[in-house]
Amino acid sequence: MFFTKLFVPSDDSDVTGVALLVARLWFGLTMLFNHGWDKLTHFKDIVDTFPDPLGLGHDVTLVLVVIAETIAALMLAIGLCTRLAALVLVIDMFVAFLMVNKTELTGQGELAFLYLAGYVVLLIAGGGLFSLDTVAFRAGHGRTPQKN
């Protein structure tokens, strides 16, 4: 029952579903292409100077951030296990905002804060009707998108 509630999208209107689709694509693809992809492709160049706020080591921290900002961001964008992907990104942005940017609401701190807000909304709301979560986990648990 817990997993059903966690992954099955709620019975929202089609307009809400479209809004969640836009938010997923906006926050997911922007994170993937503007942050995650750059860290992945320049891994060797930045690993030695990458922040290590949790004391896990620069390489481990960068690997975790790359996973969050590429894999979780892509999962969020396509709406697969949306709440899990959003949770990973919430943790990523929470650490970035709180520990790396020291809660500064300017520059990169503001950007981390805004991403954090978007990911918290998607964590709460889920992927919506137009997500792979609907296809994979809905099966007999409610309505599907209406054709107008």
Model description:
By secondary structure, the chain is mainly alpha-helical. It has helices at residues 2-7, 14-41, 43-46, 58-78, 82-100, 107-125, 132-137. The protein is elongated and about 45 Å long. The mean pLDDT is 88.
Radius of gyration, taken over Cα atoms and rounded to an integer in Å:
16 Å
- % residues in beta strands: under 5%
How many independent structural domains? Answer: 1
Tell me how many strands there are. Answer: 0
Percent of residues in helices: 55-70%
Write a brief structural summary:
With 148 residues, the chain is mostly helical.
Topology:
Blueprint: H1 2-7, H2 14-41, H3 43-46, H4 58-78, H5 82-100, H6 107-125, H7 132-137
Helix pairs in contact: 2-4, 2-6, 4-5, 5-6
Quickly list its features:
single chain, 148 residues, mainly alpha, 7 helices, 70% helix, elongated
